[in-house]
Amino acid sequence: MGLFQRSPVGGGIVVNHIWFLFMVVGIVYAAWHGQIGVVTQAAVTAAESAVALAFKLIGVMCLWLGLMKIAERAGMIRLFSVIIGPVVRMLFPSIPRNHPALGNIILTLSANLLGLGNAATPFGIKAMQQLQQLNSKPDVATEAMCTLLALCTTGFTLIPATMIALRSAAGSAAPADIVGVTVITSLVATFAALTADFVCRLLLTRGRR
Amino acid sequence: MHILSEQFSVWAIPGLIFIILVVGVVRRVPVYEAFVEGAADGFQTAIRIMPYLIAMMVSINIFRFSGAFEACVNVIQPFLRHVGIPTDLVPLAIMRSLSGSGSLGIVSELFHTYGPDSLVGRIASTILASTDTTFYVLTVYFGAVGIRNARYAPLVGLCGDAAGFITSIYLCRLLFE
């Protein structure tokens, strides 16, 4: 996998390119402005805080995946996907009926919807792992994975609890009056991402044939 | 609404845990064993994500603290000001998809300067609450399964971010100005 390998979308944005660009532009810019020492500090600090973040994630992941195992054994996830399944199946036409990934996708979306950000991540990762089992090229994202990511990056929220708390702490007189705007905005963002996803998927399959 | 949503977020997690446990016991699941079995999976997943997380965060941090980020903001600002986008929101617009802690820092700074109930404060709140950190989500989710070629996923995420940014400015102007 070369750094400059062309993406199958025909030169679209690839994480490799963005990563390389950020690194090189950052280093060159710092050197040009005579503050190359900043780069060292920035790199080391980031590496350390990435590890701290991953360790924090261990606890949350274990907690939710443990609870989810109980829910799975009790048949709750299957029940859940039978109820809300049809909508999700429409968004993910490539996932076979009754595939366990559907249940976890629904759980991620519900957790996001309720503003339970740190519960959404473990479910989402679990869903990704199950989608990976359907993937014939294990290091290339499938269409279903891209759709799931589109839903997760926009993270449709119904109750922005963290933001309300933050505004409250900053001395807002009406911390919750952004709720309406937030709901509409994240609906629009989700819709835009899904549309972009749909267009990309169409262009891609057409390009391949 | 404030009290209601606050109460909801206090009760949601304990309630969910309670329901899962009760249903589990009713359906005769050995709850403790099942929990431990599931939890074992969490450790491996979090460890697998680590190298991806380090790579992404190092690159974004170098870009940010070298001054290149600010230079980008300065280049884009005049264009966006032309379209009527408040200048102070431009750093947030770019930072939102790159770094969660970075954008949180920008929002608290805006709160400090303008107050949370100002127009800029409200737009900033809406942007922070309605979109997620695209590159973080991308790194964690794809890293967990070892996806290296993300194909069009970054583009799709950024489209969502841009739509959220424009919508929040438009709506806040409409309602709060």
The interface involving the most residues is between: A-B, 116 and 101 residues
Report the count of strand segments of chain A.
0
- Gap from first CA to last CA of chain B: 22 Å
Average pLDDT figure of chain B? 89
The secondary structure category of chain B is mainly alpha
Count of strand segments of chain B: 0
Question: What's the shape of chain A?
Answer: globular
Succession of helices and strands of chain B: HHHHHHHH
How would you describe the shape of chain B? Answer: globular
Largest sheet of chain B: none
Q: What percent of the residues of chain B sit in helical stretches (DSSP H or I)?
A: over 70%
Annotation keywords:
heterodimer, A: 209 residues, mainly alpha, 8 helices, 73% helix, 0% strand, B: 177 residues, globular, transmembrane helix (chain B), SpmB (chain B)
Description:
Chain A: It comes from Acetonema longum DSM 6540. Chain A: This is Nucleoside recognition. Chain A: Residues 54-163 form the Nucleoside transporter/FeoB GTPase Gate domain. Chain A: Keywords: Membrane, Transmembrane, Transmembrane helix. Chain A: The chain crosses the membrane at residues 12-32, 38-65, 77-95, 101-125, 146-166, 178-204. The complex is a heterodimer of chains A (209) and B (177). Chain A has 209 residues and is mostly helical. Chain A has two domains: 10-56, no CATH class; 75-207. Helix content of chain A is 73%, strand content 0%. Chain A is built from eight helices and no strands. The longest helix of chain A is centred in the N-terminal third of the chain and has 37 residues, at 37-73. Chain A is globular. In chain B, helix 2 packs across helix 7 (134-145), helix 4 (90-98) runs antiparallel to helix 5 and helix 6 runs antiparallel to helix 8. Chain B has a domain at 67-176. Chain B is an all-alpha fold and 177 residues long. Chain B has eight helices and no strands. At the A-B interface, helix 1, helix 2, helix 5, helix 6 and helix 7 of A face helix 1, helix 2, helix 5, helix 6 and helix 7 of B.
